[in-house]
Amino acid sequence: MRKLLLQGLLKAPLTEAAPEDAAVEKLAAELKAAARARLGRSLSIREVDAGSCNGCELEIHALGNAFYDLERFGLHVVASPRHADVLLVTGPVAKNMAEALKRTYDATPSPKWVVAAGDCAINGGIFAGSSACAGGVEAIVPVDLRIPGCPPTPVALLSGLLALLRAGKG
Ligand code: SF4
């Protein structure tokens, strides 16, 4: 036990330092400015897992960690579609989730954007053709932006949302 404590004190921590990333800093500033210009406030996002393997969720959750720090991008994750500007949908749409996705879309006030995040959300990905899969998000609700990747990286997600704010409807 004493040996373990001593090792813990003397050895370097196992976690890696966050990398310096000028590109992420630049993206943060651009997203914040775009959200301000477009909405005059933060962009509110409701994440919808329509049948994902959770790989996409891990990348979306990474946006909230100390390195990416979602809030400084002018983005805010909300608990209800009634408070959302964007539905960020992951996964192929499982047949059992199709009705829930449709209802979530209907509950989101207009104008609203729908983002299909990840290859599965775009066209069913590796689950396409499965008897449990209703297809990509577009098979159920209109999609405004597609962010490819399996899973898409946090930077790809942020770049996609920036494109949405700059070019989107509403
Ligand atoms: S795109 Fe990849 S990571 Fe995302 S739900 Fe599909 S299989 Fe999982």
UniProtKB/TrEMBL annotation:
Keyword annotations from UniProtKB, A to Z: 4Fe-4S, Cell membrane, Iron, Iron-sulfur, Membrane, Metal-binding, Ubiquinone
MF terms in GO: 4 iron, 4 sulfur cluster binding; metal ion binding
Alphabetized InterPro entries for the sequence: Complex_I_20kDa-like, NADH_UbQ_OxRdtase-like_20kDa
NADH:ubiquinone oxidoreductase-like 20kDa subunit domain segment(s): 53-164
Lineage top rank: taxon: Bacteria
Cofactor or coenzyme needed: [4Fe-4S] cluster
Pfam families in the record: Oxidored_q6
Gene3D superfamilies: 3.40.50.12280
Family: Belongs to the complex I 20 kDa subunit family.
Name listed for the protein in its UniProt record: NADH ubiquinone oxidoreductase 20 kDa subunit
